[in-house]
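Predicting holo structure, 5'-O-[(L-methionyl)-sulphamoyl]adenosine bound.
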Amino acid sequence: MTSGRSFYITTPIYYPSDLPHIGHGYTTVAVDTLARWHRQAGDDTWMLTGTDEHGQKMLRAAAANNVTPQEWVDKLVTESWFPLLETLDVANDDFIRTTQPRHEERVQQFVQALFDRGYIYAGEYEALYCVGCEEFKPEAEIVDGTGPFEGLKVCAIHSKPLELLQEKNYFFKLSEFQDRLLELYKTEPDFVRPESARNEVVSFVRSGLKDLSISRSAFDWGITVPWDSSHVIYVWVDALLNYATAVGYGNDPEQFARRWPAFHVVGKDILRFHAVIWPAMLMAAGLDVPRGVFAHGWLLVGGEKMSKSKLTGIAPTEITDVFGSDAYRFYFLSAIAFGQDGSFSWEDLSARYQAELANGFGNLASRSVAMIEKYFDGVVPSAGAYAEVDLAIQKTVADAAAAADAAVERFRIDEAIAAIWTIVDALNGYITENEPWALAKDETQRERLGTVLYTAAEGLRALAVLLSPVMPSSTEKLWSALGAAEGLGPLVDQPLREAGEWGALSAGAKVTVLTPLFPRVEQA
Ligand code: MSP
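Done. Tokens:
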């Protein structure tokens, strides 16, 4: 079902040493939803996620657990990171691990190419390094320690002491790319989104770029620098390259040409790596820069950025075990403006689950199907002449479908869901006003009753199609209850950009009883 337009989208690759929490889950379900949308719209879609397995952080964690780094990452990836994708119902096309040979070999090729092109030189380096960030910290992000770290310089993000590193390093001539980067942000205003992220990047680059240290010699858990085996490649350079190595850079030109360039969705904490360093590396190699970088905000718990190290970490399974994966996806993607910070609370999650999913969408689906069951022996009736109220529903559906697709183009999943929800609200109001239960009591209103229930069923057909990228599991259930598969085929094959065209569901479809899509939950 691919019509041509390539859509390649990535999540950051996660550090496996942290256990997956709802922040990682947020990025992953957002990317999965965008990918599912484009896939279902017929675009030539590819979704990549994976793990970032080298670097000092991993080495130390392994040592603390008395195993080799490879054993350490293998265990974590298998026990925690693959299962996360199941937990969240993610349909990724590939999963890259930076310890795979396909990645390691091509990273060496890339770095060698930069060296051959004259963009890498050897130099001395002395600076403060944060192992938590795996980054030499700029002045602005260094603060004085407090409590046990009184008198020390600490990282503003991790509040842990920085380490003074003094090494011979290889450097990438990042400073040479300042003008070309500024030109890029100017000619392609959507390269960095949202606007606030773009402004931050532009002012950062305007203030001047320093060359970037891209190798380390103090430890060896990494990819060896091809021309100097006493150095390993800096973990961020290694990690960023996953986006290219996973789609054939260096060994499969055909696949690379088909997929590249990518859209990257990242948390705003790692925006500069993606919007400054990464495009500069690509320019230096003579490759296309990404199609765009979208930075989303932080999930806050109790007002603080959620993170494992600050003990506010919540595992995605804590939510999915109670509410299910669809509710997880719906909640984070609809409740937070994509691109801004958002607060998580159990109260808010429960309230939205009850109001929007159980009472709003779920109840609309069950009562519509139940009435078709009851008044038409489970066969979707045909519509008679449409009245103004019915035509208003058709317009709502068409407008919502168009608005949702436009919002997804802008990466605004929250706005897409809000647009789709106008259908839920309109249909609930429509049923209340048209009172099918009253029409059913009057034999002369039989045709009108058919029109009303066809309208409800066809509205649900559109909702199932439009919501399937967000809530793949409950929409699948609805699709089968509507008996839609027989006439229309599998839900995931329904052309998304035609979802708003009225009349796809045929009269005569056989509905089956729908158990509640969003059952009542025991309050957590
Ligand atoms: N390994 C690097 C990324 C390399 S990409 C080439 C890394 N990994 S990470 O495990 O720390 O994951 C960071 C990403 O997880 C963030 O960019 C963000 O997408 C997500 N989040 C982690 N904590 C988060 C919140 N509290 N809120 C929202 N997203 C969060 O950095």
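The chain is about 50% helix and 15% strand.
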